[in-house]
């Protein structure tokens, strides 16, 4: 299963702080962006490169650059915004495709309400960002949207993932790799990840 639980000491340390119920909104926000940067580093480590020639201080020399079109980062509103700067710190030229998904209270299905995708998705790698992969409903709706728009290469970056969400993504999209700081135990009866982080959106926006 293409799930990557990144167990770097910096990630484990920062995630431990984020799990503290007494962490301030400011610090929670900062940690979310920092962990997002570290996940980005891992999720991009196999990007294809191409050679090119540059003028260096002592003449012409061979260098390398990332091949192909720029990446698109896809924050799932609202909580995904809390990871955006962390990704853009490492990939400042990335285009941003904002996606909003709401739950239809009658059907309980995830329904898109905002779809601001960038162009030429067939030539881009999409990095979806959402702090919590719980049931996987929003993630699947976002991948559906991207694939329908022609995107062929999708990766998901989440701070914490539940086994149920990972399995749901893998069942429909076995080609989508998931990068996470932690695979947690389970979902509770309200759909929260245990031990998780609580409501990540509320903690990021200070609305709790
Ligand atoms: N969304 C959250 O913010 N937290 C969870 O635990 C699950 C979904």
Automatic annotation (TrEMBL):
EC nos:
2.4.2.9
What does the record's cofactor remark say about binding?
Binds 1 Mg(2+) ion per subunit. The magnesium is bound as Mg-PRPP.
Q: In which pathway does it act?
A: Pyrimidine metabolism; UMP biosynthesis via salvage pathway; UMP from uracil: step 1/1
Give the protein's cofactors: Mg(2+)
Q: Which GO terms describe its biological process?
A: UMP salvage; uracil salvage
Matching CDD domains: PRTases_typeI
Q: Which family does it belong to?
A: Belongs to the UPRTase family.
The name of this protein is Uracil phosphoribosyltransferase
């Amino acid at each position: 299963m293409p799930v990557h639980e990144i167990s770097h000491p910096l990630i484990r340390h920062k995630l431990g702080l984020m799990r503290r119920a007494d962490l301030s909104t400011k610090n929670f926000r900062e940690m979310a962006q920092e962990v997002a940067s570290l996940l980005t580093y891992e999720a991009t480590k196999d990007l294809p490169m191409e050679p090119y020639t540059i003028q260096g201080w002592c003449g012409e020399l061979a260098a390398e650059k990332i091949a192909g079109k720029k990446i698109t980062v896809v924050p799932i509103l609202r909580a995904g915004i809390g990871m955006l700067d962390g990704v853009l710190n490492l990939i400042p030229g990335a285009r941003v495709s904002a996606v909003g998904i709401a739950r239809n209270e009658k059907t309980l299905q995830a329904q898109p309400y905002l779809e601001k995708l960038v162009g030429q998705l067939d030539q881009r790698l999409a990095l979806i960002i959402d702090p919590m992969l719980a049931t996987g409903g929003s993630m699947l709706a976002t991948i559906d949207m991207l694939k329908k728009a022609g995107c062929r290469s999708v990766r998901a970056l989440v701070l914490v993932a539940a086994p149920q969400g990972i399995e749901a993504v893998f069942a429909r999209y076995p080609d989508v790799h998931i990068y996470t700081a932690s695979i947690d135990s389970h979902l509770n009866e309200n759909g929260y990840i245990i031990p998780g982080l609580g409501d990540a959106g509320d903690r990021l926006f200070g609305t709790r």
